[in-house]
Input
Amino acid sequence: MTTSGASSAKPAAAGTEGAAISDGAASDRRHAGQRGRKPRMADVARVAGVSHQTVSRVLNHSPAVRPETRERVLAAIAELGYRRNVAARALVTQASRTFGVVTFGAELYGPSSTLMGVESAAREAGYYVSLANMSTVDSKSVHSAIDHFIEQDVDGLVVVTTSIEGDDTFESLGLDIPIVVVGAGRKPRADEIPVAVDQELGARLAVRHLVESGHEEIVHLTGPRDSFDARARVVGYRAEMEAAGLKPHPVIVGDWTSQQGYEVGKSMSASALPSAIFAGNDPMALGLIYALTEAGYDVPGDVSVVGFDDVPGAEYYRPPLTTVRQNFEELGRQCIAALLKALEDKGKPHLAPIKPELVIRQSTAPPRRD
Amino acid sequence: MTTSGASSAKPAAAGTEGAAISDGAASDRRHAGQRGRKPRMADVARVAGVSHQTVSRVLNHSPAVRPETRERVLAAIAELGYRRNVAARALVTQASRTFGVVTFGAELYGPSSTLMGVESAAREAGYYVSLANMSTVDSKSVHSAIDHFIEQDVDGLVVVTTSIEGDDTFESLGLDIPIVVVGAGRKPRADEIPVAVDQELGARLAVRHLVESGHEEIVHLTGPRDSFDARARVVGYRAEMEAAGLKPHPVIVGDWTSQQGYEVGKSMSASALPSAIFAGNDPMALGLIYALTEAGYDVPGDVSVVGFDDVPGAEYYRPPLTTVRQNFEELGRQCIAALLKALEDKGKPHLAPIKPELVIRQSTAPPRRD
DNA sequence: ACCGTAATTGTTAGCGTTAACATAGTGAGT
DNA sequence: ACTCACTATGTTAACGCTAACAATTACGGT
Output
């Protein structure tokens, strides 16, 4: 109705060809950019016969817009296939609506699953997810990742690491955005929000299962020394052993790999075997079982083995692996929830650690009576 | 040296407190934002005693800057801990320096590895990587992902899918950004750039190994019908069989899961067993072997099994799995190379498919003579 | 009819950067 | 010495959006 009047009133600001858009406005031009430039707010405004600010208001769900006007604007948006320009928005609001995720070695099942959980939760909340995967956890790569994200002006950061090394590095940055550190099982630093699966509980579940099966000599093959998760599992292992009145053995330090598990299994086979082994993760358990079997031992006949993670396929290992399942999806979801809360409250939310779950399969059995 | 004089010259535009930055400029304020706002180009310019445009030139490596001036600017940048604002940059250049990656079910080893390859290559090239993982490949979620990225104004898109379903959907979008589709083993559509591992070759390698070991009755357990990769492997299987003068068997259709492999193995065990099975991926091979073993057969004694992917741990399966390794890292790298080339040439680069590699372990052996 | 108040909508001014053009220096060629 | 071309730098104007404020309209109470 007032469309033509408005369009001639202002010669479309830009030096290019502002008219290219209004011609044939009625045609079905979904994704624009076919001819002429992408539509901007002003174009929508012109078609709807309102000011660009009203369009902005509609997009931002301002209550100060008459329903009738809103309809008109929405129709114009649909007609033009208009999409708001995030860069312009970010520039003026100082918020990129992007979360950065730093992972370390995300080829592994745990980190990659966590990442996917984070991603889906973030997207649901209307945030973009920017990724940086580092192969090593040295302070140089941590800094490089942080730089990457600061530059990108992310609104929050999720750090998926199990290592201590990377940890200290975050401390001194003095960033003014919320940071969630996944898998840090220690007291949180000044401005970090810890989110984690209750590793200690997971370990206790595993050990308890072994104890209840009648095992007394239970050895723990743990992850690398600098891993928080690994440490927490060690704590859980010791606690549960003691709770059962059993003497914890010195832990054997591994590095999460099947290779390492295999080596440990081989050297164990050479000397006296415990009656049960609690491996820090499934790959190590896999290697371990391989070595044990190779040496002529039967799992679980001679030795029971419990893993941790429940990687895909663990069900079809031989024997099917008894293990502790972590809900990574939920973990990722919590990360985003924490970030979101920190962003609106300016306060650090406190989240209950996620409960892992014991999955009993066939790599564990009561000890052989001898 | 000229700092204080310059700061009084211009009352710092912003309504906040622009002076907060120039006071104590000599102190080590790496990441700024402690007090006052983040420094912007104008702040750097003031400290360096140049115009903001010169700072921009230095940042963009313009040759039209005297080395001496460049030094001064660089020093000011370091002193202030200045970081360029990507949103502002994106707004004016119409380029976000971000690539979007759509994955479907990236909990799996292949997609997630590819993603990491893409990420590292992109970051190396100075691009940000935005992620969207979809659990299903229906056209609704494809559209949703695309929308997500269009809105974000990504400069290019990497689609990691093996499915046909998602494919048609990309066609009609008429996006004006380059799109790389990973794993599409068919003729590329209008504006897509295909990047892939040579699946057909991989399959031939696997089958050839079996043939050379003396097998004649080789069955192929393939991936889902709508997967390009699966199809290409079927083609390779048939081609190699025929090349060896052998009759290809009808393929058995699976769905990539261990579960499915197990089911197939069970029903195979009930009837006559072939002398060798070529599984479409490692998880299926794992389930298959489990079922076969459970039924009392020996692998590779009674049946040889070859997998595809070389997932971590395959080395410690029982028996260690003979499989075909794909270099996902390289695949990701090629995706970015393709995108980059398309972006500068405006032409569609043609890349040679990546050669997979046969890894011979112990799940294959010459057939039993009977 | 007149004013105040609330409900809508419009106008203006940046956000921080780059592109385009303008301007000042610097030698070289005549 | 004087212009020409070139080099190095500065100035101005967008990019597309939101925030803050200004303006208009409608409505109820006096």
